[in-house]
Amino acid sequence: MQRLFSTFPNGWPGAGLLLLRLTAGLSLALVDLSRLSGLSESSVLALRVGRLAAGLLLIVGMWTPVAGVVQALIEVCTGLGEPSNRLHAIAASIGLSLAMLGPGAWSVDARLFGRKRIDV
What we know:
The protein has 120 residues and is mainly alpha-helical. The protein has one domain. The chain contains 5 helices and no strands. The protein is elongated, with a radius of gyration of 16 Å.
């Protein structure tokens, strides 16, 4: 799992990643998809479950690269249903950037797979 993350920055960069993760996760978890028309009930349910799962994973910072890619895929699929709304492209780019940058020092991923101190 360590290969998925380049670093676990702390300080101001870690705080920035935490803010980015919270923004992306809350926007996913709190969005209501009932306004989507033209999709079957199972598609809307799958999007809701995917959004909630990816949002919660991003909020706590667990499996951040996977959750970021899931967010990007969900936003692209949702954006295809609503071509007039360009916010889905912004949310997809945030998800991809989180997948590339990693979770930061203040995350579950950092606690599980972060920096290790080796005493010799």
